[in-house]
Amino acid sequence: MSFNSFGRILRYTSWGESHGLSIGCVIDGVPPLIAISKEEIQQDIERRRSALSRHTSQRKERDRVEILSGVFEGKTTGTPIALEIINEDARSKDYANIAKVYRPGHADYVTERKYGIRDWRGGGRASARETVMRVAAGAIARKILGEKVVIRAALSQIGKIKVDEKRWSWEDCHVDNLFCPDKETLTLWQKNLDEARRKGVSLGGRIKAQACGIPVGWGAPLYGKLDADLAAAMMGINAVKAIEIGAGFGVVERDGLENADEMLEGSGGEKKYSSEPQFVTNNAGGIIGGISTGQDISFSLAVKPTSSIRKSLRTIDVDGKASTVETLGRHDPCVAIRAVPIVEAMLALVLADHKLLHRAQCG
Amino acid sequence: MSFNSFGRILRYTSWGESHGLSIGCVIDGVPPLIAISKEEIQQDIERRRSALSRHTSQRKERDRVEILSGVFEGKTTGTPIALEIINEDARSKDYANIAKVYRPGHADYVTERKYGIRDWRGGGRASARETVMRVAAGAIARKILGEKVVIRAALSQIGKIKVDEKRWSWEDCHVDNLFCPDKETLTLWQKNLDEARRKGVSLGGRIKAQACGIPVGWGAPLYGKLDADLAAAMMGINAVKAIEIGAGFGVVERDGLENADEMLEGSGGEKKYSSEPQFVTNNAGGIIGGISTGQDISFSLAVKPTSSIRKSLRTIDVDGKASTVETLGRHDPCVAIRAVPIVEAMLALVLADHKLLHRAQCG
Amino acid sequence: MSFNSFGRILRYTSWGESHGLSIGCVIDGVPPLIAISKEEIQQDIERRRSALSRHTSQRKERDRVEILSGVFEGKTTGTPIALEIINEDARSKDYANIAKVYRPGHADYVTERKYGIRDWRGGGRASARETVMRVAAGAIARKILGEKVVIRAALSQIGKIKVDEKRWSWEDCHVDNLFCPDKETLTLWQKNLDEARRKGVSLGGRIKAQACGIPVGWGAPLYGKLDADLAAAMMGINAVKAIEIGAGFGVVERDGLENADEMLEGSGGEKKYSSEPQFVTNNAGGIIGGISTGQDISFSLAVKPTSSIRKSLRTIDVDGKASTVETLGRHDPCVAIRAVPIVEAMLALVLADHKLLHRAQCG
Amino acid sequence: MSFNSFGRILRYTSWGESHGLSIGCVIDGVPPLIAISKEEIQQDIERRRSALSRHTSQRKERDRVEILSGVFEGKTTGTPIALEIINEDARSKDYANIAKVYRPGHADYVTERKYGIRDWRGGGRASARETVMRVAAGAIARKILGEKVVIRAALSQIGKIKVDEKRWSWEDCHVDNLFCPDKETLTLWQKNLDEARRKGVSLGGRIKAQACGIPVGWGAPLYGKLDADLAAAMMGINAVKAIEIGAGFGVVERDGLENADEMLEGSGGEKKYSSEPQFVTNNAGGIIGGISTGQDISFSLAVKPTSSIRKSLRTIDVDGKASTVETLGRHDPCVAIRAVPIVEAMLALVLADHKLLHRAQCG
Fold it and tell me: Which residue of C has its CA nearest to A144?
């Protein structure tokens, strides 16, 4: 029932504020005998960190992860794996203005009203800093899923500029390219981002994600639905405001014939399911009735423009009085960029959990 | 960890297949001393049932709900409330074709592959019939929320025809109007639905929902997020493929200034929060950082056209061989209509749970 | 987090008061394709019912169980199994005295103080009637465990009369013998029970239980401990006040050498664990460090004399004023007797849950 | 569903092995605005550490706790509180013998069989070292309970020597006295412990615990029972093999009249419950029907003699072959001593959780 955990059998619990001594997480329920090193986890963390470099915010952290428990002689032992990163750059900043004034679009106001107290340093618990632990945990989740499963995400739109689906190349999509799957679009995005920074505003983004190699049968019909768990996991990422699975909102304007994912006999041979049946289309996004179909799981989500902008905004202070606030210094013009590895991590975590759940009930 | 439960403190568990002896649910954690009668619950059930009449499927059920436990002398006792509806019309139908062939877009195939067995009568557990219990449970959730909270949903689009937001009238929106908030649009929809039925196809729909009167502070920052729980609850409704909260996918093309929900000082008086601060806009949809802001909670979701259409579709049979399938008899041209009361019920359940959760931690 | 559920993957949720329309339960997470009939479940219910005949209370119920869901063509489908028994004898009794006065030792007072309301008819939710559903669910749990696992319990003491361990015979222990494993002791018990009934008092009892055939490795080291889960399950049975596992309280007076369960090499052959190692003793009761050792799981528990006695006891009424109360009519001189099948059922449920849990994490 | 968490709303999750980099825990769901300092937590840790001094094992650790998150300017913020202690003395020891041979009575064998891997350094996850975090978390739980609640435990028996109940003095019971509530008994115990150490054996112990000041109404009737949760929490402490609540196993030999806890009218005044009713006895140990009665909650538990003794014991090695093992160096003659503060901590944690649970449902 925890407020700071998710997962059913593979259970992730995190701790830490932006400026506490450390941030960390405990991943419980990991199967034993999986080879994992802190270097592998660090790689995923670096990928997220790189996404913060040019076009994102400027916190200087080395972000060195430590495995505190649960791994022995290079392998998981089945006991809880705790990961921790010391907050090094946590003391120097001046957040005096945030302490007294609520920033619109941030969690400042709701936190104060809910708890009557708020660690205002760097956004406290609501800071996106916590997401580094999700990325770290995601590295372990990928190991549980195994090498046949491919988890990947890309930016498909920044502001008004969409990637042309025809030029989509997963190969071109990596962190140094702002996770852009098309080189031509990238140039336009960079121009837009520079302009946004000059103007002191921020831009929204759309992320597409996929999981390939998931067998048919993960999930459950009603309240352990794979799509419901994915929706929660994605909506739980900072700044995400929408998710659509498969054809998503596109289904509204389709009729049932257009939307049907017809099935063809598997080509393989005599025995039932010796070769998997083929779907003609994948409007379902790989999930029907809460259960994976064996097709690629695919979805898309919306990330809002960061609320930290170099513009003076009307707000109230902690005494309820009218005030204004403006984010000073360099800022992050598009948080959707760094959300990409987080989306991948959350996707891996949800799927790894369902892999174990399926095994529990169905052997 | 249950596969057939949701909620954290207010916990709903359902049972039942389309053609089992009965369907029902257990609602656990309901506060004591709340006045509730089966007639009140029946009202909500009737509202869902009416939505099935002209434009939806034709199962003839009286759907009489019984309160099996948890209510004594008209009041909740704090013990689990079990609700049950006997399946009366469960024996007569012929589902022989479904038994042998998987219907595209339905859960037939994934269920068989997951479990190795499938109650094919009427869709079994995956049937939308289960949703009647959600509606029943929702009636209790509304009682927990109290009269100051208004929960409501409407259809905002069927197929390609959208309601003009300017003519939106919640007053006009009721079950006899297909939950359409605009009389002019209704005429167009009815024409379209008739045409779809004639053609033997089905139409998708979009639902808008609102919760008004929710105080600031419900939810939790990271994994007990109100928006994440709502996303899971909505994505868990049959045929829902997308959800957006507040501005939703609209945030992608906005900049941070356009998307900022600025705040104004409350007008009320001297004491802090003697009057609530005002938000200039509500792009957030009433939830920031996973916590309610005190504004209306609002979101929108996509319901796919039902997969049961009077068209021959390519598929495979239970032996993996190529086959075709066509839904015979009258069918349901737009399942989004009957989804409206279900959306309301799930919204009420999630919010009632968070009301209790907030009380648990914050008193 | 439910108040009326237990289990982690195999999850049992019950509903019902003594005099509601019905009592029932939902068992979620049952693996598919297990053959089960309502007749098999009924057998276990009859066994509990017989225990109520001569020496226990006199409620006349046929207790016919129905499977409402989750079983199709004689096999489990993986969806929730709901079981229900209609309360037939629920209307006739006069509980007017209980409505106004709290019976010492019963949950009357605490229920009223906790909830501010109380279904006083027959003890409401706190009635032992609910345990019939545990017995029913236990029948399914046994199926999940398979035929190699033997679950059994016996009465080892009633009042001051203990069974002589040397004469212990599991074969002689069945419901018609008051679950007494020794015929000589049985005669003494029957005499004592008759005397207790004449005097209008009740007697306590001790139950011993065993699970044989459990492999090494079920459980978890710290908070998913098999012994902790068993302790909770047993202490959750009405009237149970103590539990000891293996040597139990006996360990207090032993030294570490006496208490050591030494191990001997398996006799079987060359390959590691081709034959299981042998333990010289089983002071641990089959569980060490929260994990099954492969030995018999064995424990013992104390059941208090029922609080319903034909003696006038000092108490208070619902207005807090001094009063007296006496249970009229025939009464139940030793509730430990009918607790035996309930202990077995709870033991089966806990073990079946851990079987699935182990499979989830360790494959 | 976590294997390494407990609690429902107040949720404790721990990590760490005996010789990992650190041990720690996350406490989630703590109400905001509770004043807490690391010095206060350290006090409880010192109390446990002192219990290890003369008569317990000799690990040299400073055990300095750090609060990593969840506390801001001396107060809880409602976000997860992570506590950590660095393992300083973790590298020096030689556990080569444990690596190859299973120690009887320890979790070595079951761990290896369950997971196929085992961190054998110092017992790994199964080491009692983890209990330091329970004590730390217990300090926070006491704060949640408030100053009116008194949580206390004492040793009532070591080996065959019991404390005379008539000489029981809670005042005399503190860590420097081996938590012995009677000075005369203490002398006998010390003699016995010295003798046990000389002989190289260990002794069992019995602990009594109490919670005073708990109001009537915490707990829940069936599966959220306060006594069931306590039983699980206590049985989950290393080496605990039995628990009895109130009269415990004593109820077996009593009749219902002897065991009745009669009630007297409160002396206070006119208004209902203006003064609490009085119970004549407390055989129930403060819990009836799973719910607190308002009397002292009291129970007793058995701690086995540590399995680490200076005697050669028959066992098997990791290849399944016959071997022997003997614990070398100084050892811990009675682990029950250091279990006392752990019992208090677990008691506080269970009660604090139920305080919040009660508030959630009943306001």
Answer: C361
Contacts of C195 (CB under 8 A, 6+ apart): none
Which ranges in chain A belong to alpha helices (H)?
A: 38-50, 96-100, 108-115, 131-145, 183-199, 226-235, 256-259, 336-362
Note whether B253 contacts A111, CB cutoff 8 Å: no
**B175-183: long-range pairs with CB below 8 Å, 24+:** B175/B47, B175/B50, B175/B51, B175/B340, B175/B341, B176/B50, B178/B51, B178/B55, B178/B337, B179/B51, B179/B153, B179/B154, B179/B155, B179/B337, B179/B340, B180/B154, B180/B155, B181/B154, B181/B155, B181/B156
CA distance D349 to D358: 14
Burial of B199 (0-12, 13-18, 19+ CB in 10 A): middle
Instruction: With beta carbons under 8 A apart, name residues in chain B contacting C76.
Output: 117
Beta bridge partners of A26: A13, A82
HSE of D347, CA atoms in CB hemisphere, 13 A:
26
Any chain C CB within 8 A of the CB of A357?
Answer: yes
Q: Which of residues 272-311 of D touch C (CB under 8 A)?
A: 272-273, 277, 280, 283-285, 288-294, 302-309, 311
- Running along chain D, 363 residues long, what does each successive block of 10 average in pLDDT? 86 94 96 97 88 57 92 97 88 70 95 95 89 97 98 97 96 91 95 93 97 97 94 97 98 96 82 78 98 98 94 94 85 90 98 97 94
B227 at interface of A, judged by CB pairs closer than 8 A:
yes
* D23 beta partners: D85
A178/A52 Cα distance (integer angstroms):
10
Residue owning tokens 């309160």: B67
DSSP codes joined into one string, D75-87: EE-SSPEEEEEE-
Other CB atoms within 10 A of residue B215 CB: 15
| Strands annotated E in B213-290 | 240-245, 263-264, 278-279, 287-288
pLDDT of D53: 55
Q: Which of residues 16-75 of B touch C (CB under 8 A)?
A: 16-17, 20-24, 26, 28-29, 32-33, 66-70, 72, 75
| Domain range annotation of chain B | 5-246+284-362
Query: Do the interacting molecules here have an ipTM over 0.85?
Result: yes
Q: Which residue has the tokens 């022995």?
A: A72
Q: Does A156 touch chain B (CB under 8 A)?
A: no
Task: Give the DSSP H or E segment for C86.
Answer: strand C81-86
Interface-testing mutation among A27, A132, A259, with chain B (most B C-beta atoms within 10 A): A259
Distance CA D89, CA B194 (A): 78
Surface of A (68-107) touching C: CB under 8 A: 78-79
Q: What tokens does A285 get?
A: 């996004």
Q: Do B75 and C117 touch (CB under 8 A)?
A: yes
Q: Which two tokens stand for residue D111?
A: 């761990």
pLDDT digits (tens, 9 = 90+) for B157-186: 999 999 999 999 999 898 889 999 999 999
Nearest to D105 by CA among D248, D265, D342, D307: D307
| Fold adopted by C5-246+284-362 | Chorismate synthase, AroC fold (3.60.150)
Q: Average pLDDT, whole number, for chain B?
A: 92
Q: Are C46 and C130 in contact (CB under 8 A)?
A: no
Q: What is the pLDDT of residues D260-313, one digit of tens each?
A: 999 999 876 556 666 789 999 999 999 999 999 999 999 999 999 999 899 999
Q: Torsions phi, psi of D325, nearest 5?
A: -145, 145
> Which residues of chain A have a CB within 8 Å of the CB of C32?
361-362
Can you give A70-95 as a three-state secondary structure string?
CEECCEECCCCEEEEEECCCCCCCCC
Distance from CA of D31 to the nearest CA of B (A): 5
**Is residue C246 over pLDDT 90?**
yes
Q: How open is the CA angle C177-C181-C183, to the nearest 5 degrees?
A: 65
Beta strand pairing status for D278-279 and C161-162? unpaired
